[in-house]
Write a sequence for this structure.
């Protein structure tokens, strides 16, 4: 009984810390609310670090998240101080994000350790708080329509769409496992707000959500047909209902036309963002080829681009041109070690761990796709959440297997 109460108490403490950090980064990382962000972040990180300090492990093994995050940030600090090419190296911001990343991992690992079945609850609460705050800030724009929402929250509309998308994938996983109508209702609301951000990246995550549901519904033809009908209706709504077409449908059409080379500014089928992103990715890759092994240094793209942008809007090319193959391999080594652990132990064949394998695989797919359209390594800690959650989940499996 005492052990159960202790576990329940630890779960609530870690959940509270996680919610504080997530909401702070989701809603309050703006110039107007930076003090709120700092207070919530300091409190959340302090709770996570103090309550989980006894679980710190510096044992060297390939899948140790703590060692990986220390190593990758050591690379950032080394390049930032010694090989800065343009702008400035915001060491204080990187230090805060380093602490946030460790705190998030410890909090999520603590949730798995104490009550893995209810682990999605804190993420759902954070998502609901963000939705309520967004409605409070941009309710008029949401009702009026025709405008992408999310600019009043942290980052930009694309960042907000991605943050909702991460939570939506976890809620989708929860629904597939538990079949709770509350999870389905929250998923519907999350998808709605993802689409209202007008983010094409968020739309891709919606597709991943649907793919995860298909994975769990294999063998249920009637459910597949219902899901297919929902997809058809969704596509119709995005491209035929003016409210959604003005926000997202027109942007998707313009993106496709621009990529195919059939766009027209006169007909409003040209996507400047798609065109300039292609140019930036190409330019960053050329910079990488000039110094492929160790890269050209921190902010190499900023110092040499002709596009007047500070970064290439693609994590792969930004890392390659700054840190070369050396830094890029270190950054993505965590993905490789996670996949290696799953394959080596054949977790996909073990009934107790299949659910973990599904969410880990889909989270890493989500992040690997998203990294084509965003710079993750220097962004907010929420951009690291997919790999943090995946690593904490596999560490939970590792501990469970040792106890068998």
């Amino acid at each position: 009984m005492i052990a159960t109460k202790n576990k329940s108490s630890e779960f609530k403490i870690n959940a509270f810390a996680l919610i504080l950090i997530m909401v702070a980064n989701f809603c309050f990382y703006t110039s107007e609310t930076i003090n709120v962000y700092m207070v919530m972040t300091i409190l959340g990180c302090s709770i996570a670090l103090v309550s989980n300090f006894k679980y710190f492990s510096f044992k060297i093994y390939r899948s140790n998240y703590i060692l990986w995050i220390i190593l990758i940030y050591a690379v950032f600090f080394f390049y930032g101080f010694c090989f800065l090419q343009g702008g400035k190296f915001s060491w204080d911001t990187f230090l805060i994000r380093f602490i946030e990343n460790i705190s998030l991992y410890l909090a999520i690992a603590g949730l798995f350790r104490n009550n893995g079945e209810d682990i999605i609850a804190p993420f759902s609460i954070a998502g609901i708080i963000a939705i309520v705050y967004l409605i409070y800030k941009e309710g008029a724009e949401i009702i009026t329509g025709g405008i992408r929402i999310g600019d009043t929250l942290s980052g930009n509309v694309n960042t907000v769409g991605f943050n909702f998308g991460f939570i939506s994938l976890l809620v989708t996983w929860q629904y597939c496992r538990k079949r709770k109508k509350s999870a389905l209702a929250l998923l519907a609301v999350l998808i709605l707000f993802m689409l209202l951000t007008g983010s094409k990246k968020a739309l891709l995550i919606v597709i991943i959500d649907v793919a995860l549901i298909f994975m769990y519904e294999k063998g249920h033809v009637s459910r597949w047909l219902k899901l297919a009908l929902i997809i058809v209706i969704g596509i119709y709504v995005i491209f035929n209902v003016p409210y959604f077409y003005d926000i997202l449908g027109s942007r998707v059409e313009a993106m496709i036309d621009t990529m195919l080379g059939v766009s027209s500014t006169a007909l409003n089928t040209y996507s400047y963002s798609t065109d300039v992103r292609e140019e930036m990715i190409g330019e960053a890759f050329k910079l990488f080829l000039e110094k492929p092994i160790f890269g050209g240094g921190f902010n190499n793209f900023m110092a040499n681009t002709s596009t007047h942008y500070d970064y290439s809007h693609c994590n792969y090319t930004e890392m390659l041109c700054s840190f070369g193959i050396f830094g890029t391999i270190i950054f993505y080594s965590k993905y490789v070690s996670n996949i290696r652990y799953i394959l080596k132990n054949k977790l996909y064949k073990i009934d107790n761990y299949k659910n973990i394998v599904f969410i880990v695989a889909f989270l890493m797919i989500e992040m690997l796709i998203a990294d084509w359209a965003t710079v993750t390594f220097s962004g907010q800690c929420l951009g690291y959440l997919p790999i943090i959650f995946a690593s904490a989940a596999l560490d939970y499996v590792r501990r469970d297997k040792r106890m068998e």
Q: What stands out?
A: The mean pLDDT is 86. The radius of gyration is 21 Å. Residues 293 and 378 are 20 Å apart (CA to CA).
